[in-house]
Amino acid sequence: MKELTCIVCPRGCRLTIDDDLKVTGNSCPRGAEYAVNEMTNPKRMITSFMRVKNRENCVVSVKTSTSIPKRMIFQVMEEINKVGVNAPTNIGDIAIKNVLGTGADIVITKNVK
Ligand code: SF4
Questions:
Q1: Cis amide bond preceding 29, omega within 30
Q2: What is the pLDDT of residues 38-58, one digit of tens each?
């Protein structure tokens, strides 16, 4: 049995999930889905910075377009650090499409002229 706090909405229900993946404490079905996913395939959004290759000492903020498996966070961070982008960049540009086959894109969140 494990206790979790649901982070799907601001209400923050206290959840309990047992070894058979039975969830209690959730006020809606999304909480149960969150708890089961946390136990079987936890996922996280990533926010980070990416090097701007054609500007000196310049980075641009990026994020994943959707959550990725928690176990792949370090590999995705390595990919973000390895690739870099060229300016100009615009918010919403895709720096890496389907990063490492996760289904998530790395999206730029800052304009750089
Ligand atoms: S269980 Fe439902 S109501 Fe409760 S925090 Fe999660 S999403 Fe919000």
A1: no
A2: 999 999 999 999 999 999 999
